[in-house]
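Hi C.,

You asked whether I'd gotten around to modeling the 546-residue construct. I have! Everything is below, sequence then structure, no commentary in between.
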Amino acid sequence: MKSIPEILLVDDNETNIYSLTKILDRLPVKLLSALSGKEALILAGKHNFTLALVDIQMPDMDGFETLKRLRSTPNHDQLPVILISAIYTEDQYRIKGMATGAVDFIPKPVSPEIIRAKVKVFLELEQQKRQLNQLVAELKKKNKQLAAEIKNRKKIESELRKARAKAEKNSEIKNQLLVNMSHEIRTPVNSILGFADLITNPDIEDVDKERYVHYVSHSSQNLLFLIDEILDHSRLEAGELKIVTGPCCIHDLLAELYEAFEKIKDQSDKNNINLILELAKTDKKLTIQTDCQRLRQIISNLLNNALKYSKEGEIRFGMEPKGNHIEFWVHDTGVGIAKEDLDNIFDRFKRIENISDLKASGTGLGLSLCKNLVTLLGGTIRVTSKPNVGSEFRFSLPMKMSTTEEAVHEDDEITQDTIDWSAHTLLIAEDEEMNFMFLQEALKVTGIHIVWAKNGSEAVEMVKTTPKIDVVLMDIKMPDMDGYQATAKVKSFNPSIPVIIQTAMALTDNQGKTDAQNADFDDFITKPINRTTLIKILSHFLKNKD
């Protein structure tokens, strides 16, 4: 029977224990808590913990001493311990914590997303450790059997060495991912928290506030890009990343990327780099059958890489049909890649290092994701490069022409300036006030009348008592009654009212629509919500009511 990992939470404040419990209660773990270091040691004598989260400032025995003693209890000499503190945040305490044996240090107030991400990684490492131990046990058993098979000894020993090396490499890869994630997530989070705090200063001028908002937005996008990259890597490893094929207008896609990266250039202080879009002389509405989202992701990753490793010069990208394939390229005049690195540049965590005057950031997953996505789309990718001259990435995809115009340009005419939904009413079911306020501000330009339900029960009652509601935007995770239950009740007495699910869960388009239909939803939108996407979805349902 598979055992459930146990995590120890140590804090003398019951409120903090409760908060950590709520943050981690959705994970497949058993949570045990102690209000002091002494209680923690007693629990450690009775349980075999996978991870411990320990507060530093505690009476009688502080977090540092608790960490030392936990490591001395049986079966816990290698116990990963994360220290948490609101006061001891200076570097000297971080260094002391690491010297004592802590694997990480999290300042308060803690971010639920970051703490869950870190805990998930340690759970994966524990699973990897168990798999490795199981593999070692199997290898020992095989070694005993080999005594009677002298003739095959060399062949079998070679296979065992490869298996051990593979297991050790996988463990090393997981450790490298943890290190990269910890560094890369901390960078945009620090920027977001820092500039958000500055914005609240009443003494700063409006022009500075606008600049700080710009920095917060840029860092938020970087954080979201990083999280998506890590999630896609996990899906690829698990074989769960799905390709959603549909019509994709190539010229429109590349034009959108050009505009987006012109802005990214400005935000990255790289205005001395000239961005050039090169399009073959083909039909401007050239539309092929592929996964447009994944194609955009591939080119975006390559452009991000080009910007990251370029200080000046130019970045050219474009496409050209070649027979039954269409070829895309991204060319830069950056630092280039050494010949010895070209063969493994698409490996996970491979990055150009030791560049004294150019900071290389990122998880090291970007190019590996590009290669895997290109392969899933039925194509190939290659790179040519010369140090201090530049690099060029080219990839080819099958040019399967689209036979329909479905959904490619149907929303082109929708502009926020021309929308007038003042005659319509939208019900937003959302328990988080900040999320509701964002949606309210995002839709203000449309003139639509908005009513707010703070939980599922309120949403059901409002639809019953307010017949003028035209569409419902329903959050899934709400207290009292969740979005699934609320929608089922609404549809039971008003089956024609459109209900759009809003969720923080990462879904592919096809999977999302399937789940929505099974749960009586009419459509879905994922968080963080893009204002333009939301208006397009609402327009689809409201245009039939005009």
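If it helps when you're writing up: The longest helix spans residues 153-199.

Thanks,
B.
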